[in-house]
Structure formats: C-alpha cells, structure tokens
C-alpha cells in the first residue's frame, strides 16, 4: 500500500479538489482518511489516500469481462462463489438501509477475499487489503456472522488430545 497526501483549502478548494478526484479516478483506493484543520482563513482538509497498484491482488490476476469487470463466478470456486454471493446480498441490504453505495461497505474484491479466506475474526478482516479498523468495527461482526452461518460446523477431531 502506498500513501498520497492532499491539502484542500476551505477557500478556493477547486484545483486541489480536482487533483484529488483525478488521483482517485486513476488508482485503486484502499482507504481515505480526512481531518479538518481549523485555522481561520487558512483552514483546510488534510486528506491521506491509501492506494495500491494492484500487484498481488485478486483483481490484478482475475479474468475481466469486456467492460473491465471481474467475473467472480469464473475466478472463485463454486463454494467460494456461493459465500461471496450471500455476502453481496448482505452488503446490498445494509447499504440500502444506510443510504450509501455498497462499495462503501466492502468492495467486491474484499468480499471475494473474505469468502476465500473464510474470515472468522475482526483481526483477520483487518488483513484484507483496504479494510481498516473503522469498517471492521462497523460491519465486521455482521459479515463474519453471516459467513460463519453459511459454513458447515467444524467436527471435532477424535484423535486430537483435547477431545480424548
């Protein structure tokens, strides 16, 4: 992950704002942190954009359709795709309830990673590229619970010493 910093002044923000928007349009954004710095006429927004160039990511190696979208049905195993589809349904319902875009909760790539890795904790969720503490705290329990409800229960290993 790489970082890019922007300073967006309150007075005449148009040019720096356009620079930020252009940067976001051209890169795969993982997270954006913004803080308001109050200093009278010199007040500004400090913006940190965390981004990557797709190296080693699912999107970088996945098959894309003619529109440039990843076909997760081709990329994921049947079991993973079933989990991914259910997570997308949960994301859609949650986004509609909150009045936000679904990708503001988790991206398709993040949902695919959650399904593939069978995420079972918030700490594991934080290891998914682009998921920070805020989204893990806000949505993690809900998505982990959904994923775990779809997985078969683990059967105890009869040969394991704890089960003897």
From TrEMBL:
<feature type="domain" description="HRDC">
    <location>
        <begin position="77"/>
        <end position="157"/>
    </location>
</feature>
<dbReference type="GO" id="GO:0003676">
    <property type="term" value="F:nucleic acid binding"/>
</dbReference>
<dbReference type="Pfam" id="PF00570">
    <property type="entry name" value="HRDC"/>
</dbReference>
<dbReference type="InterPro" id="IPR044876">
    <property type="entry name" value="HRDC_dom_sf"/>
</dbReference>
<dbReference type="InterPro" id="IPR002121">
    <property type="entry name" value="HRDC_dom"/>
</dbReference>
<dbReference type="GO" id="GO:0000166">
    <property type="term" value="F:nucleotide binding"/>
</dbReference>
<dbReference type="InterPro" id="IPR010997">
    <property type="entry name" value="HRDC-like_sf"/>
</dbReference>
<protein>
    <submittedName>
        <fullName>HRDC domain-containing protein</fullName>
    </submittedName>
</protein>
């Amino acid at each position: 992950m790489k970082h890019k910093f922007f300073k967006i002044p309150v007075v005449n923000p148009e040019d720096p704002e356009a620079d930020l928007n252009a940067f976001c349009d051209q890169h795969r954004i993982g997270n954006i942190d913004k803080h308001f710095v109050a200093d009278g006429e010199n007040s500004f927004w400090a913006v940190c954009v965390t981004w990557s160039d797709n190296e080693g990511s699912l999107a970088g190696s996945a098959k894309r359709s003619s529109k440039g979208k990843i076909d997760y049905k081709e990329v994921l195993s049947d079991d993973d795709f079933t989990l991914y589809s259910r997570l997308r349904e949960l994301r859609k319902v949650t986004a509609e309830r909150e009045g936000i875009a679904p990708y503001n909760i988790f991206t398709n790539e993040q949902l695919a990673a959650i399904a593939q890795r069978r995420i079972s904790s918030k700490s594991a969720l934080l290891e998914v590229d682009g998921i920070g503490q805020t989204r893990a705290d806000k949505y993690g329990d809900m998505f982990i619970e959904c994923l775990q409800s779809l997985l078969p229960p683990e059967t105890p290993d009869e040969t394991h010493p704890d089960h003897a």
